Amino acid sequence: MMPQLHENGLAQQPWLSEFLRLRGFQRNGVNSFSNGRALLRFEGQQLIATPADSGKSWRSDLSEVGPKAICFVLTQILSTPGFLSPEEVAFRAVQQSAAEEALHQVGESIRQNPESPTSQHLRRFVWSLFNGHHALNLWRLKDSLDGERAAAVAQAFSGWMQGFVSEEKLRRGLVDSGEMARWNEVHLSDPDHARLTDAMNAVKDLLNSVPPCAQFTRLTLANELLQQAMDSLRDVRK
Q1: CB 199 within 8 A of CB 226
Q2: Buried b (16+ CB within 10 A) or exposed e, 128-148
Q3: Which pLDDT value is given to residue 234?
Q4: What pTM was computed for the model?
Q5: Total Cβ atoms within 10 A of residue 179
Q6: Which residues pair with 60 in a beta bridge?
Q7: How far apart are CA 128 and CA 160, in angstroms?
Q8: Domain layout of the chain by residue ranges
């Protein structure tokens, strides 16, 4: 067993006090620190962390780990909602509100003119945030947007990346913009269906003329994928 690394108790370690100070926790007792919401108390080498809602406390024995590991544990705890500072809570609320408003603006653009080239890209953008079944070309998206819509997309995407846009908000955006309804209503047009058929026939012709080679293997795969697409379209049309 490793010897205890902090003979005078963790709360008396200068490096720990500084670590907590930089994260908004000030000493409010001999062995405790607070950020105005949550409480961290040290009993020797034991950590007792109580969140702002006075819910279940975190307890951890830190007697056999060094400063680096202790800082890692504290970082994980302090990043959870119950241990955020009032300033961080307010900041996150502002960011969440801004991201949700931006998502609403994107949805309104789609709702007002869903078939425009810009809205086509915006529709792909929102669907790509909602699940992993949609491809989006960011260069084409950026090129299709004016300044106002570009700002809304940037804000919504940044908020989503930081966890400020929930799945429920995305779902609501898809519903309000009409996308959920269009999902089951929109079908491949006859001209587009004909283009797909022509592509499959062209690949088949190539398979009959290209000798065995690496390209032949890729063409075979392309033919199989096109055939799967055709089969799916037939199922949809039934």
Answers
A1: yes
A2: bbbeeeeeeeeeebeebbeee
A3: 65
A4: 0.64
A5: 22
A6: 47
A7: 11
A8: 10-83, 86-185, 190-237
Distances (CA, A) of 152 to 81, 109, 123, 170, 195: 26, 10, 14, 14, 35
Question: Per-residue DSSP letters for the chain?
Answer: -PPPS-TT-GGG-HHHHHHHHTTT-EEEETTEEE-SS-EEEEETTEEEEE-TT--SPEEEE-TTS-HHHHHHHHHHHHTSGGG--HHHHHHHHHHHHHHHHHHHHHHHHHHH-TTSHHHHHHHHHHHHHH-SS----HHHHHHH--HHHHHHHHHHHHHHHTT-S-HHHHHHHHHHTTHHHHHHH----HHHHHHHHHHHHHHHHHHHHSPSSHHHHHHHHHHHHHHHHHHHHHHHH-
* pLDDT tens digit sequence for 54-79: 678 889 898 888 999 999 999 999 98
